[in-house]
Amino acid sequence: MLIQPLPGTKPFGCLGAQWYSEASGAHSGTSMVEFAPWSVPWERRLQTLSVLQWVFSFLALDLLPASLPSSDLHYSLHRPPVHQILVPQCPVCNLVVPGPRQAMAGRQARPVPRRSVVWKYMKDYFPVSLVKTAELDPSRNYLAGIHPHGVLAAGIFVNLCTEGTGFSELFPGIRPHLMMLKPVVPGPLLQGLPHDWGAMSVARGLGMRGKAQSQCSGTPSWRLVTSDKECAAHVLNRKGGGNLLGIIVGGAQEALNARPGAYKLLLRNRKGFVKLALMHGVPLVPVFSFGENELFDQVENSPGSWLRWIQNQLQKVMGISLPLFHGRGIFQYSFGLLPYRRPIATVVGKPIEVQQIPQPSQEEVDKLHQHYIDELCNLFEAHKLKYNVPEDQHLEFC
């Protein structure tokens, strides 16, 4: 796709760059890279910067602790020179990094507010919107099934973990929480990140269930909670209600299917969240983000291919999927790790009433699971034409 410079701007060119001239109506040469114009408005530059720091935080900083011995990393990140250098560079780092004395004392990191202007710029980059179709009673707790995962789940992050789209104004009295898979305990740099954003970890098998349970039952800690059922039960059983626990049902494996035009959801055998709703008697809320899969291209990895086989094996070992994706860059539009500027609309469906069954049978789980799929399909069909989804396109389940 040929990118046209913004009106009144001059292209930031290079040998081999191809530009479209409205005056001549012709192309000149062939291009491998399409560069951005010099005179990009500052508003757009700030939008790009906000997304850049977010992508950097997830792809780079989150992988660093897993690649180095935790004790050495803890020391290197908390020496004053490194702390002073790293923190000012990235707004997200300011969210999560406690000072050396704070870390030693176990104090909370000072979070950047959910209403920070950083998230407003990130919302406007795509842009992201949040669509309400029904009221949520602030006296009750809810469990939301979120689809699709996409590559980085950008839309649901903006909508649930920040106030970029005004969640609290659209759903007054509801506090959103996002559960995220963390198979590796991150180092000090990112330990507080999920809590500061309102997210919770659902890592398994780390031998820290006792700690996780105590942290979930107390005030939020700047340390990452490494648990699943304990945290979910704590949120869903909170007295007074007003909590929404979001679970991206397809998880890391579904990210391998994320590419433009894909509407295949990993849901057919994902029934744990349904059983959770039954056990706690909380309504299920279907949520679908239109445009989430349009943000990145992905190297062809169809099931049965050698690449998918390798990705599946790595996922079994590491617990996370490794999609080979690409989008645009900072100063050019042809390649890079930034998502494309494509709109995302997260539609929150009508709650499905669930009667509490402390020990549901498989038949009861299957029945509610099928009801949930039907409601999710109805939500998709009712809104797809508004977001440029072809009329003959329907959800697929695997």
TrEMBL record:
<comment type="similarity">
    <text>Belongs to the diacylglycerol acyltransferase family.</text>
</comment>
<keyword id="KW-0472">Membrane</keyword>
<dbReference type="InterPro" id="IPR007130">
    <property type="entry name" value="DAGAT"/>
</dbReference>
<keyword id="KW-0808">Transferase</keyword>
<dbReference type="GO" id="GO:0005789">
    <property type="term" value="C:endoplasmic reticulum membrane"/>
</dbReference>
<dbReference type="GO" id="GO:0003846">
    <property type="term" value="F:2-acylglycerol O-acyltransferase activity"/>
</dbReference>
<dbReference type="GO" id="GO:0006651">
    <property type="term" value="P:diacylglycerol biosynthetic process"/>
</dbReference>
<keyword id="KW-0812">Transmembrane</keyword>
<dbReference type="GO" id="GO:0004144">
    <property type="term" value="F:diacylglycerol O-acyltransferase activity"/>
</dbReference>
<protein>
    <recommendedName>
        <fullName>Acyltransferase</fullName>
        <ecNumber>2.3.1.-</ecNumber>
    </recommendedName>
</protein>
<keyword id="KW-1133">Transmembrane helix</keyword>
<dbReference type="GO" id="GO:0019432">
    <property type="term" value="P:triglyceride biosynthetic process"/>
</dbReference>
<keyword id="KW-0256">Endoplasmic reticulum</keyword>
<keyword id="KW-0012">Acyltransferase</keyword>
<keyword id="KW-0443">Lipid metabolism</keyword>
<keyword id="KW-0444">Lipid biosynthesis</keyword>
<dbReference type="Pfam" id="PF03982">
    <property type="entry name" value="DAGAT"/>
</dbReference>
